């Protein structure tokens, strides 16, 4: 027994049936009229009911439309209706940037499940700034929760570019509120604040220098959004200039002035930290986003790599930069003085040749030598256990390598190298303690040069250390 399939011919025959206007040959029994331009489409009840739950229910109910064999549609263009009716007969439809949203709307209203899926998928794969605001509104009104979440994610992922477009100004307040509540927007916070001012002026129709009345109007416009700005991520100058502008509500500005005073009093560092911890429980303005102030990490993908590899939201939300070699000096003793006994620690290194790599440890670097656990050439050395330690490579342009995470070797998990003896110049012995990438052998030039381009002939340009 053989099964013969010719779906292409079936599709073409049914399409020709729909497009044939000869009643005697096509046996049409139902008419759909597009009210927008009074275009009429002759169809078959059997086809409509088999392709759409809406039409199946309509014909079962024997309502007026069933009795009159006619349906008038007010909410669709003739071109969209023609495309969808052609799809009903042939199983084929062309979805593009111009019609995707309208096809999604029609499919949702008239219960065409597979077209909802097709058009949603197309929109996701072809998201653009030009359409994202419309998609947000549509997803919310039609309860397309998956598409709604995807829209928010797309805006958050591309926020830095999005705020520079005119489409950003068309966002509704409730949408902007939800976006700004996201901790993972990778954009300078002062730029976010400036974009909110621009958005507020647009919504308030303020086009010139503000007088007192217009300033109050702007304050009212942004009043429900301003508490989502993370003022703690402003520089001292940015915060000072912002407070001077007088656009911040009094309740928030008083807290920022108090923060400013503690920030300027170097003797009260402990009190500043206590103030921040208390205020973080109350509002977002003192809670940093996952964006962290690294002069080395400038690419979003690199930040996302680190976030995925470390997989600890608390670390990213609370961490601070404890050391910068350019600022604090290329001095190993100074580094230990500042970075020992801090618990979870992230180190990022950039070389003069633009290699970027580093490491992460959950136990940190311990100054108490009694806790050190290894002897090397008769001398006690700084090895401590951390089975979850790993090193990573973020940029290796020389060999065109993808970013990678390299966990500690199974047999080395009871001892982890404490730290290099000197911060500059550097030396790489990759593969002794941590796993090498597949296909690379320990001791080879490829292994020794993987992180920094060579084993010894590289120089640290910057070394940053982060901890809570």
From TrEMBL:
Name this protein carries in UniProt: Pep-cterm sorting domain-containing protein
Keyword Phosphoprotein among UniProt keywords: no
PANTHER family according to UniProt: KELCH-LIKE PROTEIN 32, LD33804P
InterPro entries the UniProt entry points to: BACK (IPR011705), BTB/POZ_dom (IPR000210), SKP1/BTB/POZ_sf (IPR011333), TLDc_dom (IPR006571)
Residue stretches making up the TLDc domain: 296-468
BTB domain: residues covered: 28-97
Keywords, in A-Z order: Kelch repeat, Repeat
Organism encoding this protein: Anaeramoeba ignava (Anaerobic marine amoeba)
Domain of life where this protein originates: Eukaryota
